[in-house]
Amino acid sequence: MIPGRAHRSRAAHSGEQPVSGDVATIVFVGGGPRTVGLLERFAASADELLGGRAVDIHVVDPYPAGGGRIWRRDQSRLLWMNSMTSDITIFTDESVDCEGPIVPGPDLATWVAGVGATRLEEAGLEPSGPMDFPPRLLQAEYLAWVWDRVVRSLPANVTVTTHLDRAIAVASEEPWGRTPGSSDAMSRVVLQSGEELRADLVVLALGYLDREPTAEQAELAGAAEANGLTYIGPGYTADIDLSDLQPRENVIVRGFGQAFIDLMVLLTEARGGWYDECDGLLNYHPSGNEPILYVGSRRGVPYHAKLGYTAAGATPVPTRYLTAAALDQLGEGVLDFQSQVRPLVDKELTFAHYQQLFQAHPERTRWSWERFFEVLDRTLPTAPEFIAAVEAAVPAVADRFVLADVDRPLAGVSFKDRAELDRTLVQLIETDLLRRDDPQYSADLAVFNALLSVYSVLSAAITAGRLSDEDRVRHVETEWHGFFSFVASGPPPRRLEELLALHRAGIVRFTGPDLQVALGKEKFVARSSAVPGEIEARAFVEARLPRPDVLAATDPLVRGLLQSGLLAADHLVASDGSSLGGGQLKADGQCRAIRADGSVHPSLFLLGPSVSGSAGSSGFSRPYFNGPGFRQNDAVARQLLQLVSVDSQKAGQRHAS
Asked: Per the database record, which ranges form the FAD-dependent urate hydroxylase HpyO/Asp monooxygenase CreE-like FAD/NAD(P)-binding domain (predicted)?
């Protein structure tokens, strides 16, 4: 398909687009998993709500519909997902609490083993088992198949046209808010190719938005260019040009999460190196094209490996201490996160850990669960009484849960030299790999599941206005999300095995915690307060995603809508008057856009990670998890159907007469 060209997935009207009341038009901007999920829910409820009304749907995205940008086919097959095959579905199941009918479909693992097998063979991809971490290209094929199935499931009176193009503007033709499909006024979605789509309803199903660099990043980029150095700021690793990173040269890397893992893969195996295994030890054979990566971060350690097992009884459950009712008991209005909410978060995770330990592994405890729970229930994890109970009841330090130690394993540690730092990190990574693969430590799985439940409660509290903007940005979106990612969103275990092999081969070296990078006279200089000495390099890479800020978004559509006042976003200011940057796009509880004047836009819908109150930013969920994104998709899809239904059209005609 040629970029900028439209492709109709079903038979549609020829000639000019219909703009009369006979056919309603909906334009989706964004063709990734979120739009796929919305259309699946649209199809599920169409027979009930559409009433035979003809609908033309247009999906605009410069990347093919289904996978969108992140899950496109055009990326390295060496890049993996950090979720197991069995943990991914885009279909509703009986766990999903929604008004529309449940229409089951295969999760990724079932699809790979069944109808997807032939498709994967044709794409030259090996099938992945349920407990494997598949290549992102496998997910791309799954989403492309789901897209085809969803389009086929739409009723005959609904057509879908895809546009490999970018939407650059939405122009308002007043009056907004007329009955969708009536012949008075419509919105215009302007594409980069110059084509214009007139629409009754517009849905911005936006993914993660690229943003302008911060002042610090712009200064580093400018200084690097002036001095003949290479600076690569935060971004999506699969989209970044890494050709300036030269073989065998030092490269300072700040960031030890998923973005670093992708960078590591693209600068080693993708440059011709390879691995083999001898006596259970993974070895890396350099091609000679690899740079030397000096990696560090605030923590100074890589994200924890993903868990490689399941355990009976360790599944996500509703929170016990951090609940909406508990927050209501703290008082009305805005709560203080650090003093009121964070203690409940810590207690929730502590409870999950010890309940699983005492009930699944009682041989490693000295008290009964009932006795220990009595202390936990009436205290906080930092209380002397509880700390004493842990020391008395849980003899092994490895079985204890101290959130501060989990969060910052190198806090307060100093190393006499880099050799000592290396030994410490290698031991930490090896221990992590053993532990994350051992069901004897299923308390870790209980904490992982509790993190998911806690995240859901915090998201609801933010949407309800129970937290200040400052607390949301500094303590939830930065500190808490960082902890969540460190513990729950780490790489597949194999990637940490490769990291150790690369370290043994001299390709990856560690810099320590609290990494600071500055521009010296001729090179970048990296320092860690925990390790003596410094590292100099011609190149510096920020291996992390940019912090979301819609006011700094580079997307011309979002910038234009904010400038015109058709969209609104908070400019967040801390209590001391300092700027926290831009917040998310504002939407009401029905995902309708809120304008700059505070009014609700009845014909423009917003979903995605850059939108306030939007759930399920990934667009898919774990099976049987009642995914919040699925519930939101169902509600929005049914609202769209009701707006364009025959009954709605008749109501508009009665009103006009």
From this structure: 27-208
- DSSP for 418-461, please give it: HHHHHHHHHHHHHHHHHHTT-GGGTHHHHHHHHHHHHHHHHHHH
Q: Are strands 167-171 and 187-191 parallel, antiparallel or unpaired?
A: antiparallel
Res. 20: pLDDT tops 80: no
SS3 label, residue 201: strand
Cα 234 to chain centroid, rounded: 15
**What element of type H or E holds 294?**
strand 292-296
Could you give phi then psi for residue 231, rounded to 5 degrees? -125, 125
Q: Tell me what the pLDDT averaged over the chain comes to.
A: 90
Please state the pTM of the whole predicted model: 0.91
Q: What is the pLDDT of residue 459?
A: 84
**Of all helices (H) and strands (E), which one includes residue 4?**
none
Cα dihedral sign for 258, 264, 265, 266? positive
Question: Measuring CA to CA, which residue among 605, 329, 353, 648 is closest to residue 487?
Answer: 353
Contacts 24+ apart (CB under 8 A), 146-151: 146/36, 146/40, 146/66, 146/90, 146/91, 146/105, 147/36, 147/65, 147/66, 148/66, 149/105, 150/36, 150/39, 150/40, 150/43, 151/9, 151/10, 151/39
Tell me the sheet residues that pair with 594.
Answer: 600
Q: What domains can you pick out in the chain, each with its CATH number?
A: 6-13+30-210+550-656 (3.50.50.60), 215-303+491-542 (3.50.50.60), 324-409+435-477 (no CATH)
Q: Can you tell me the mean pLDDT for 156-185?
A: 74
pLDDT tens across 415-432, in order? 999 999 999 999 999 999
Exposure string (b/e) for 63-101, b if CB count within 10 Å is 16 or more? Answer: bbbbbbbbbbbebbbebbbbbbbbbbbbbbbeebebebe
pLDDT tens readout for residues 474-493: 898 889 989 999 999 999 99
* Average confidence (pLDDT) over 364-378: 98
Q: Which two tokens stand for residue 296?
A: 């560090």
Amino acid identity at 329 = Q
204 and 30 Cβ atoms separated by less than 8 Å: yes
Cα angle, residue 518 at apex, residues 513 and 519 outer, rounded to 5°: 150
Cα–Cα distance measured from residue 39 to residue 32, given in angstroms and rounded to the nearest whole number: 11
Chain segment 531-578, per-residue pLDDT in tens: 999 999 999 999 998 888 899 999 999 999 999 999 999 777 777 877
DSSP sequence for 92-140: --TT---SSPP-----HHHHHHTTHHHHHHHTT-----TTS--BHHHHH
In this structure, what token pair is assigned to residue 303? 């994200």
Q: Name the phi and psi angles at 146, rounded to 5.
A: -60, -45
The residue type found at 392 is: A
Side chain identity at 591, as an amino acid letter?
C
Helices within 242-341 (DSSP H only): 258-266, 324-329
Can you point out the beta strands (E) in 143-291?
Answer: 158-163, 167-171, 187-191, 196-199, 201-205, 230-232, 250-254, 274-278, 281-285
Is a pLDDT exceeding 90 seen at residue 139?
yes
Distances (CA, A) of 23 to 19, 84, 182, 185, 604: 7, 43, 9, 14, 18
| Cα–Cα distance, 447 to 450 (Å, whole number) | 5
146, 105 Cβ separation under 8 angstroms: yes
Closest CA to 479 of 408, 569, 395, 428: 408
Give yes or no for a contact between 608 and 619, defined as CB atoms under 8 angstroms apart.
no
